[in-house]
Specification:
Layout: H1 8-15, E1 20-21, E2 23-29, E3 32-38, E4 41-45, E5 50-53, H2 62-66, E6 71-75, H3 81-88, E7 100-102, E8 109-111, E9 116-128, E10 131-143, E11 150-153, E12 156-159
Antiparallel strand pairs: 1-11, 2-3, 2-6, 4-5, 5-10, 6-9, 7-8, 9-10, 11-12
Length: 162
């Protein structure tokens, strides 16, 4: 097989065998809350506390989040699939009926009912194919209501029980 000959549909199918948690990345830009759903998220470093999230280059929300003073990573619970889908939709009023409070440091939305959240400041952004790798320093964080995580696996959603 030659380099670059991997079919994108086959790549998506095979990589779909890796279960991921689901997050909603939020910020406030020009006094308007913005956000998008992201499953490409990872805890990166303990010292300093860093995380990474990977928005698509074509994301309409990302440029507004990148211009905000900070962002919040909201880790979704198994009961939040509808919220996940709402924030994955482009052009919709993603915050319609969604409860949230501003984080203490950046003012980014902490979504009601999330399992956990991390208030962050962007440290670095790297281009990587059709996505960006955004490294952010965690400034504050907390746990929410508890419960089971929302998982994405092989194109569908589910929950995990320990």
């Amino acid at each position: 097989m030659t380099e670059g000959a991997i079919d994108s549909a086959h790549f998506r199918t095979v990589m779909g065998h890796f279960a991921t948690g689901v997050t909603v990345v939020t910020a406030v830009h020009d006094d308007v809350p913005v956000g998008f759903t992201a499953q490409s998220f990872v805890s990166l470093s303990l010292d300093p506390p860093l995380v990474a999230v990977c928005p698509g280059i074509q994301s309409a929300s990302w440029p507004r989040i990148a211009a905000a003073p900070g962002l919040c990573i909201n880790i979704l619970g198994g009961h939040q699939e509808a919220l996940c889908r709402a924030f994955a939709t482009s052009g919709a009023d993603k915050y319609a009926g969604v409860g949230w409070r501003p984080s203490a440091l950046s003012g980014a939305p902490v979504l009601d009912g999330c399992l956990a959240w991390a208030d962050c400041r962007i440290e670095a952004t790297h281009e990587a194919g059709d996505h960006l790798i955004v490294v952010a320093q965690v400034l504050d964080l907390g746990g929410g209501e508890g419960g089971e995580p929302l998982l994405f696996y092989r194109g569908g959603f589910g929950a995990f029980s320990a």
